[in-house]
Structure formats: C-alpha cells, structure tokens
Amino acid sequence: MPIVAKCHKLLENEILRRSSQIVSVVGDQVHIFGGELRPREPRDNDVHAVSLGSNAISSKPTTSQSPSPRVGTAACTQNGKIYIFSGRGGIAMAPIEEQGAIWEFDPATGNWSCISPSDPSVAPAARSYHCMASDGKGTLYLHAGCPEKGRLSDLWAFSLSRRKWTELAPAFDPPRGGTSIAFAEGKLYRMNGFDGNTEQGGNLDIYSPETNSWASHVYSPDGKAGPSPRSVSCLLSVRLGGRSFLVTMFGEHDPSSLGHQGAGKMLSDMWAFDIESKMWEEIVGGDQLPLARGWFDADIVGANTVVVHGGLGESNDRLGDVWTIELS
C-alpha cells in the first residue's frame, strides 16, 4: 500500500509571512520564530504560536531577554522546550556570534533563557542555514551551515546537563548550507543541501554516536528511486504502521541567479524512507496540496503528522500559511 498524505490548510496570516524561520511543535502549539519578509531583513523576534486545536494565533512580544532578530537560525525541541543556535542578523546580516550560547524558550512560561557553555573556548562557530536535532535524552546536535565565508561540514553535540560542547566526526564533504538532519532509532541522518555550486542528493548519511563515525546509503536521486537533489528542505522522523520512516519534502532544486534576492526552482514532492528496508517511496498527495516551496520549516505532531509553515514560493513571495500533513 502506498503512503498517503492527507493535507489540511489550517490558516494563512500576514504576520506569519516569512522564510528562513524555525518551526517547533510543543504539545498542540506550533511555535514560529525568526525569518524574513524582505530579503536580508529579519522580520521580528517575537514568538508566534498557532494552536492546532483552535487555529488561533498568539504572539509572545519581544523582551530584554529575547534573542536578537535573526534569519537562518536552527532549532530543535527537548523536554517541552525549544532550543536555537546563532543565525544571521544585524546591519551587516553577519553570523551572530554568541560565544557558543544556546537559547532556550519555555512555552509554559513564555520566557527565553541564554545558556552559555561551561567552556566557551570549545564551541561551534557562528553560522546560518545550519540544522539541529535532539536525541530526546539531553543531547542537541548541530551540523553544517554558512559561517562568515564558505560552508561547513562539522558536527557538534551539546550536553544540556553539563552545558558542554563536544566536536564530533565531521560529515562527508562537500561542506554545505541548507542541509537537513533528523535523529531516529539511535542514529543521526543527514541529506541534501547546497555546496555553493550544486544541490546535493543521492546520499543519506548516517552518524552513529556510539562509534563517532559516519556511513552513507547511496540511492538514485532521479525522482523515481529516490528524491531529486534539493536544499532548504526538511528531514523528519515519523512512525507508520509500527515502522520508523524519514520524511523529506519540498525544497529548492535550482538556486536563483539572483542568489538570496530571488527564488529558484521549488519542489512540491514528498518522500518517505523506510529505515529498516532502506527504500524510498514517494508519498501520494490528495487534491489539496501545499504550494511548492523552499526556505520553510516543519516539525512533527504526534507520530505521523507533519506541520509545514511558510517559506519562499517560486513567485519569490514569502508564504504565511500553516498546513498539517497526516501520513498513513
């Protein structure tokens, strides 16, 4: 039986129009932070929450404790809290250097906290368009992205209990921005991204924490045996029929000749990877599908529902829609 997506548009709102933002689900609330409406201009540093029960939007205004406005940050959740690292902002839109600090947002109180590492001399460089994932046990993973110049392939782990960064084995080259990672079945998975010249595809790279080593599963990125190359997409872990899958969807396939000022070729397809059988399957969509997009973000609700918000459409417009995509 094919994997089928039941897509439902929850709402669309002007305040949610943005790309290069983060989306984190805690309970029945979708939390949206950062991003840009106009190229290279952070939109705000409020936290906007969409209730999955009522579709109501509430905003937690900026306080003196909030992170500065930023785009291209990365986030993950752990024990009901949201964590972000760095991003790009300020007048020069440079990577935001915070000496390895992690920002923590507690949806229960609406408060931000800045967690400084116990040893700031051992910490990842400031960057944007990187990615994060949590192992669910107190470790946050940070990978790749764009520093002041070039791109990275490094991998770091942050222990929340010890407030300590550890540099791990780097992923396979080429270094890249706009790549995606997900933690599932005790391992970290990485795919896609942009190396400065071409979109990456055809490799699902797998990091094993117990051996601090990488392996790679090679597939044909022809849009039939596996998803085509892309960047600024997503990678999420879901459970379907008692099995673990990775899901990737949408993304940019060809960059714009205008760089960050324009929109390239955006994709609208959705794919699931069976971790056990190591096979890709294209997800079958219904009549109502989200627009093709990249530079968006997504997270998981429950075991098998993806929440997608915003991003950049092919018309170079920032999107302000929120969708649920239930897989079965």
UniProtKB/TrEMBL annotation:
The lineage of its organism: Eukaryota, Fungi, Dikarya, Ascomycota, Pezizomycotina. One of its GO terms (biological process) is glucosinolate metabolic process. Residues 58-69 have a biased composition (Low complexity). It comes from Penicillium antarcticum. Residues 52-72 are annotated as: Disordered. It comes from the Eukaryota. InterPro entries: Kelch-typ_b-propeller. This is Kelch repeat protein. Keywords: Iron, Repeat.
